[in-house]
Amino acid sequence: MGNPVAKGLRVGAADALSLNRWWGPVSSPTVPLIVQKFGGTSVANAERIHRAARRAIRAKLEGKQVVLVVSAMGHTTDELLKLAGEVSADPPKRELDMLLTTGEQVSIALMAMAIHAAGHEAISLTGAQLGLLTDSVHTRARIQRISRERIDRELAAGRIVIVAGFQGIDAGGEITTLGRGASDTTAAALASVLGAEICEIYTDVDGVYTTDPRLVPQARKIDRISYDTMLEMAAAGAAVMHSRAIEFGKKYRVPIHVRSSLTDAPGTLIMTETKGMEDAAVQGVTLKQDLASITLAGVPNRPGMAARIFSAIAAKNVLVDDIVQNVYDDGRQANLTFSVSAADLAEAKRICADLVREMNLSGMSVDDGVAKVSAIGVGMRTASGVASTMFSALAEGGVNIHNISTSEIVLSCLVRREDGPRALQLVHDAFGLHVAP
Amino acid sequence: MGNPVAKGLRVGAADALSLNRWWGPVSSPTVPLIVQKFGGTSVANAERIHRAARRAIRAKLEGKQVVLVVSAMGHTTDELLKLAGEVSADPPKRELDMLLTTGEQVSIALMAMAIHAAGHEAISLTGAQLGLLTDSVHTRARIQRISRERIDRELAAGRIVIVAGFQGIDAGGEITTLGRGASDTTAAALASVLGAEICEIYTDVDGVYTTDPRLVPQARKIDRISYDTMLEMAAAGAAVMHSRAIEFGKKYRVPIHVRSSLTDAPGTLIMTETKGMEDAAVQGVTLKQDLASITLAGVPNRPGMAARIFSAIAAKNVLVDDIVQNVYDDGRQANLTFSVSAADLAEAKRICADLVREMNLSGMSVDDGVAKVSAIGVGMRTASGVASTMFSALAEGGVNIHNISTSEIVLSCLVRREDGPRALQLVHDAFGLHVAP
Fold first, then answer.
1. CATH T-level fold of B8-204
2. In what order do the strands lie in the sheet with B320-328?
3. Which of A176, A209, A333, B262 is the Cys-Cys partner for A329 at CB 3.0 to 4.6 Å?
4. How many interface pairs between A and B have CB atoms less than 8 angstroms apart?
5. Across the interface, do A102 and B105 touch by the CB < 8 Å criterion?
């Protein structure tokens, strides 16, 4: 027990980016442990809370230790944001966190009551009570450490432990939040720290789909998907799960089961890559709408130029999507294009205007109406012809491609925003994703 | 600064009953400090929150340090209780506290946003962040200690400090609440600890009235009232303020100003007794409805009998209102009558049935439909004829009196519940309370 991991797990300052700095691995508990996370729609009213409570109790009766992570009920978070908007156009982020964390606190209390009402022992814990330590970046804090002490004590007492998702505290005792949708992250981080056999994410869809079923009716549920493919799909716009949650699962090899809270049907298992998974070159296609792209022209092609530009952007907390650079002028200058969310465009333009002046660039051009279609799959590593299939499909459908970017398992094209949904359908069809592999 | 009071103030286990165990007195701050408490109706929506924020800012601009104590918005607490009721018929009290404290947390965050929006510095603090330590009796915890450390630091930084009323934490970090309406207690306790020049209680009425204006239209606002009279009025049913808040004010001589949040008109000042206050024998009359009375017959008139009975009742957390005892049988036996709230009657009956058996009493009788009319005033100490005025008024109005009890500044009569409102009117008229003294 001299191992610090026995008491908790340290995470680097940026939990998503420095998982390799964790103090892992974690020893498995002697009693199998399961983490179940219930999203907002799964706890939207008393009847659904009871339904979720029954699932937890069932797992307990099967001999497992059970930790629940619960989101705010239904549209609570949006309603609280609306209240804040009525009071202030630009509320301090610390106070936003103070406000928003009440949503999960309500849910955990009600969940504990529901389990008690069914005759079982349960206890609710806020992020502060659990000891979920984060940095101090309000509204987008990163997990630094999760204490096992309290949770172990409650589990040992035979209780179902109910943890408020999305929230933590910093070293000064300030209440922080991990970003919208980050209850998934809380669940996966807890599953990692506690050595859970599985992390179940209960939601209002029945799994991960090959693409957004609202845009492509032929979208098909995926039974098993690797952490890497899921990570790329989330990064490329699939809204079903938080990337940081998947990274926790990947690092600690905790399988994540995304499934419906309304049925017992299996959903999608996010897990370590296995042989069969690689059969299909492309497993999913995604669409990221509401992007904008900025091109900086005449960037001197010298070491450190890109670093200087993106450091300036990162310093203002603007998230950059894809980056594409082409050199010209015999390799002496480059055009550098990157995309950001449309919401960040104004800030990004201000930063770039400064850079153009300070670095004496030739200029900047902005396209504020683009979308990104991506094809994703670990099988892409070994399959050929993926790019030509995608480009041909878009060309035959009359969709013009602006920028192209690729990574090991992702192929992305920027298109006009209004072409986005059609492009998604074309690519989904081209890879035959409506048919099970 | 070696004085522990500089860091905080210890309160005995029962904050209301053992104020003399405090580590007082508290040194006055160099900058005048004011505590303003806003009740639920005073923060019911964004517009009212801004109005409250403006009051706080005005005090700040007048050169004062300002501490706000805020209740949950409007009917939030009732709505949360309704939610709990939908989930469980008998929710664990710990989880009720977890649930209910979210109401105040929402209010303090919004209040901080409103003050920021008006261009001033503010910070919200939960009970835990403030360091308001209580015992562990969930839903009716008592304050044990209030740490000054955090609040002093924030005030020194020039911030308006906004504290969540009604809540605290126990030594184990569990979230507790001080009982319904106890945001007043939080405010008065803070005013005491911080050596405030005044504790302002903003509410939806414009002060303390001679009686309940909904029952007696001639009720008149009282300009100044002593702590003692106010304490007795609160104990006898005046709902305007929490007794424990008044006790804090009395002990530390912090004037409490009960006033409307909608106007600038002065309300009622609760303060140390002064000469002019004693002119009227009776300052207010109150009605406590929904009482029940239990009579134990044939109690042996020996030392320790009453102690045994009321210890058994207190052990079950049943609050006893008045107690009346008459001896008979040449002083060998007594009849003991006490009243409890109708809600506690079932529990009280169970306890008394056990006592009748264990102590071999002659029997028990129950009246579940009584109300108590009380006349209160410090002037009663020196005035004569108060009792005869009250009894005559009731007799002439045809109201039968069940039990009579008196203390130094209170005269109470139990009457049939349906006679209550009329009895109140009769007594208010008899003492001429509609006319300013």
1. Carbamate kinase (3.40.1160)
2. B320-328, B333-341, B284-300, B363-376, B410-416, B404-407
3. A333
4. 117
5. yes
Q: Which residues of B touch A91 (CB under 8 A)?
A: 113, 116-117
Location of structure tokens 């992570």: A69
In this prediction, residue A270 carries a pLDDT of 95
Nearest CA in chain A to B81: A110
Beta-carbon neighbour count of residue A391 at 10 Å?
A: 17
Cβ-Cβ contacts under 8 Å, A106 against chain B: 80, 83, 99, 102
Round to the nearest angstrom and report the end-to-end CA distance of chain A: 47
**DSSP designation for B301:** -
Whether A173 and B128 lie within 8 Å, measured CB to CB = yes
Q: What angle do CA A49, A51, A57 make, to 5 degrees?
A: 100
Per-residue pLDDT tens for B372-397? 999 998 878 777 788 888 999 999 99
Residue ranges of the domains in chain A?
A: 4-204, 285-430
User: Span B275-304, mean pLDDT?
Assistant: 86
The first and second tokens of residue B300, run together, are: 């042996």
User: Chain A: nearest CA to B226, how far in angstroms?
Assistant: 38
Model pLDDT for residues B256-273, shown as the tens digit of each residue: 999 999 899 999 999 998
Q: Where do we find the tokens 């995608």?
A: A390
Reference B7, options B133, B143, B147; nearest CA is: B147
CATH architecture of A4-204: 3-Layer(aba) Sandwich (3.40)
Please report the DSSP string for A262-331 in residue order.
S--S--EEEES--GGGGGSS--EEEEEEEEEEEEEEEEE-STTHHHHHHHHHHHTTPPEEEEEEEEETTT
- Measure the CA–CA gap between A353 and A368, rounded to whole angstroms: 16
Q: Note whether A175 contacts B: Cβ–Cβ < 8 A.
A: yes
Q: Which of B47, B86, B95 to mutate to test the interface with A (most CBs of A within 10 A)?
A: B95
Angle between helices B243-252 and B227-235 (to 10 degrees): 160
CB-based burial, A143-176: b 16+ in 10 Å, e otherwise: bbbbbbebbbebbeeebbbbbbbbbbbbeeebbb
Q: How far is it, in rounded angstroms, from Cα A293 to Cα A345?
A: 8
Examine domains A4-204 and A285-430 and report if their fold is the same.
no
Chain B residues 87-126 with CB within 8 Å of chain A: 87-92, 94-96, 98-99, 101-102, 105-106, 108-110, 112-114, 116-117, 123-124, 126
pLDDT: is B75 or B320 the higher one?
A: B75
What was the pLDDT predicted at A160?
A: 98
Query: What gap in Å lies between CA A307 and CA A299, rounded to an integer?
Result: 12
Residue contact A113–B88, C-beta within 8 A: yes
Q: What is the mean pLDDT of residues B209-225?
A: 93
Q: Is the dihedral of CA B73, B75, B80, B81 positive or negative?
A: positive
DSSP secondary structure code for residue B182 in this structure: T
Judged by average pLDDT, the poorest of A58-72, B12-26, B256-270 is B12-26
Q: Contacts by A355-359 with C-beta closer than 8 Å and gap 24+?
A: A355/A296, A355/A308, A355/A309, A355/A312, A356/A296, A359/A299, A359/A300, A359/A305, A359/A308, A359/A309
Exposed e or buried b per residue across B170-200, where buried means at least 16 C-beta atoms within 10 angstroms of its C-beta: beeebbbbbeebbbbbbbbbbbbbbbbbbbb
pLDDT-derived band at B29, boundaries 50, 70, 90: low
Look at residue A120 in the predicted model and tell me its pLDDT. Answer: 98
Contact A371, A416 (CB under 8 A): yes
Q: Sorting pLDDT into bands at 50, 70 and 90, what band is A278?
A: low
CATH class of the domain comprising B285-430: alpha beta
Q: How confident is the model at residue A22 (pLDDT cuts 50, 70, 90)?
A: very low
Two structure tokens written together for A197: 């056999």
Mean pLDDT across chain B = 89
**DSSP label of B379:** G
pTM of the model: 0.83
Q: Is the dihedral of CA B135, B141, B144, B149 positive or negative?
A: positive
